[in-house]
Amino acid sequence: MTATLVKEASPPAAAAADTRRRPRRRGRIIALLFVFPALLLLGALVVYPVLFSVGRSFFDAGGTRFVGGENYAEMFRDPATLKAIRNTAIWVVVAPTLLTGLGLILAVLVEKVRWATAFKLLLFMPMAVSFLAAGIIFRLAYDEDPDKGVLNAAVVSVHDAFTGTSSYPTARARDGQGLTREADGAYRTSTAAAPGDTVALGLVGVQPKDLPGGAEPARAAAARTAAPGELRGVVYLDFTPGGGGEQGRVDPRESGLPEMRVEAVRGGEVVAATTTASDGSFRFGGLTDGSYTVRLPASNFAPPYEGVSWLGPALVTPAIIGAYLWIWTGFAMVLIGAGLSTLPRDALEAARMDGANEWQIFRRITVPLLAPVLTVVFVTLVINVMKVFDLVYIIAPGPVQEDATVLATQMWLVSFGGGNNQGLGSALGVLLLLLVVPAMVFNVRRFRRSQR
Questions:
Q1: Residue that is last in its domain, among 277, 301, 325
Q2: Which residues pair with 296 in a beta bridge?
Q3: Of 215, 223, 233, 413, which is most buried by a Cβ count within 10 Å?
Q4: 141 plus 195 within the same structural domain
Q5: Which structural domain range is residue 242 located in?
Q6: How much is the pTM?
Q7: pLDDT band at 11 (very low <50, low <70, confident <90, very high)
Q8: Number of structural domains the chain divides into
C-alpha cells in the first residue's frame, strides 16, 4: 500500500523539480546572452592578439619561415633591446617608488590643509591631460633654448644672478691692430706699456644695438693724458655706424665698451685690475716704473650660459620620468588619501595622548596601517609603468630616442618604426606580457583577499 502511494506521488514530484529547474536554466541562458558580446570583444581584442603574437614570435620577419626561439635569442643579443630592458628596469624601480612616496606625503599633508578639496583637484588635474598633450608640453618645457624652454630659462636666470654673464660673447680683435689672442681666449697688448702711457684697445664683432645701456662715445676718454705713475686707456668698438672712420683709431662716433674687466700684467702676474667706465675708459694708479702688458681676460668673451641639456643622453630618462610624475602624482595621492580616511582615529588619538609626536605617529602607525593600500598603489603603478610608450616616444628627440627607449617603444620601433621585423617585435610583446602578468595576478589576489 505504501509503495503504491509513493509511485503515485513520484510523477508530481518530478514535475515540480522540473518546474523549479526551468527558470534557472532560462536565467543562465539570458545571462549568457548578455555576457556573450563582452566575451566576444574580449576574445577579439585580447585573447586572439595574445595568441597570435605568441605564434608570430616563432617566425621570421616576413612571417613565412619558422625560426623557433631565434627571435628570443636575438632579443637578448641586440644592444638596443638590452638598453630598453635596462631603462624599463629603471622606470619600474624609480617611478612607482617616487609616486607612492609623494602620494603618501601629500595625502597626509592635505588633511591638514584648509582647502583640501581644491588642492586635491589641482593635483589631480594632470590626469585629465592625455599623454600626447603632456608629452608636447614637456618637450617644450625641456627645450635647450632658454627663450623657449621654461626650465632652462629658470636655470639660466639663477645662474646669471649668482655668477654673472659676459656682455661681449661675440667681441674679437682685428688682426694686426695691437692685440694678440691667447690660448684661453683672452687678449693682450702686443707691445708693452709703461706708467704715463695711454693705450687704445679696439674690438669688433659687437652690434651697436647690442651694446649695454648707457654706453658713451670713447673719443674724449682716448684724448685724456695719463698722470705720472698712471696707466690709462680705453676699450672701444672699432666700428663707425653707417661706415667711414679709420681702423685702429678712436673716431668721434665710436662707442666705448663699458663693464669690461681689464688687467695690468707684469712678469706673468696680474698686478692691478679694474673695470671700464661707461665710455670704455680705465686707469691703473700707483704703478711702479717698468713695462706692463694690458690684458682683457677671457671672462669678457665667455659665451652665455645655455642651461642644462635635459633631453641629452644622460638626462633624457630622468626628464621623462619627471613628466610621468607630474601626471600620476594626483592619482597616487587620491587613492592613498581614500585609505587614509578609513584609518581608526582612536589609534591616532591614543598615540597623541601617550605623547607621540606627528613624525612618530606617521612612521609607526599611519604607514603600517596603510601598507595594504600602499602595496596596491605601488603594484598598479608598476603595471602602468611597464606599458609606458607615449611620453617616451614624444618627449625624447630622434638622436636620443635609443637612449630613452623602453620595451614598449622598442617593440613598436622594431615592428613598425623602420625595423619591419614583426617576429622580433612579437617576441618583445610576449616578454612584456610575461613581465606584467605577475604584477596583475598579485593585484587580483589582493583585491579578492580584501573583499573577504
A1: 301
A2: 187
A3: 233
A4: no
A5: 179-301
A6: 0.75
A7: low
A8: 2
Cβ atoms < 10 Å from Cβ of 400: 18
187 exposure class (CB count in 10 Å sphere: 0-12, 13-18, 19+)? buried
420 with 412: CB under 8 angstroms? no
Side chain identity at 399, as an amino acid letter?
A: P
Domain CATH code at residue 395: 1.10.3720.10
Tens-place pLDDT, residues 50-69: 899 888 889 888 888 888 88
Provide the mean pLDDT of the chain. Answer: 86
144 shares its domain with 191: no
Q: 367 and 326 in one domain?
A: yes
Question: If you write DSSP's letter for every residue of 391-447 in order, what string do you get?
Answer: HHHHHS-GGGHHHH--HHHHHHHHHTSS---HHHHHHHHHHHHHHHHHHHHHHHHHH
Q: What is the pLDDT of residues 73-82, one digit of tens each?
A: 888 888 888 9
Q: Is 333 inside a domain boundary?
A: yes
Does residue 115 sit in the same domain as residue 201?
no
| Angle, CA 410 vertex, CA 407 and CA 411 arms, to 5° | 85
Cβ-based burial of 256 (10 A; exposed 0-12, middle 13-18, buried ≥19): buried
Q: How far is residue 350 from each of residues 42, 104, 121, 276, 363, measured CA to CA in Å? A: 50, 22, 32, 71, 15
Based on the fold, state whether residues 280 and 333 are members of the same structural domain.
Answer: no
Tell me the Ramachandran region of residue 217: left when phi exceeds 0, alpha when psi lies from -120 to 50, beta otherwise. beta
Verify that 314 and 435 share a domain, yes or no: yes
Select from 268, 301, 334 the last residue of a domain.
301
Which among 361, 406, 391, 427 is positioned nearest to 67, based on CA atoms? Answer: 427
Does 164 reside within a domain? Answer: no
Instruction: State how far Cα 313 lies from the chain centre.
Output: 12
**150 and 189 share a domain?**
no
3-state secondary structure of 450: helix
Say how far residue 156 (Cα) sits from the centre of its chain: 17
Cell of 41: 570583444
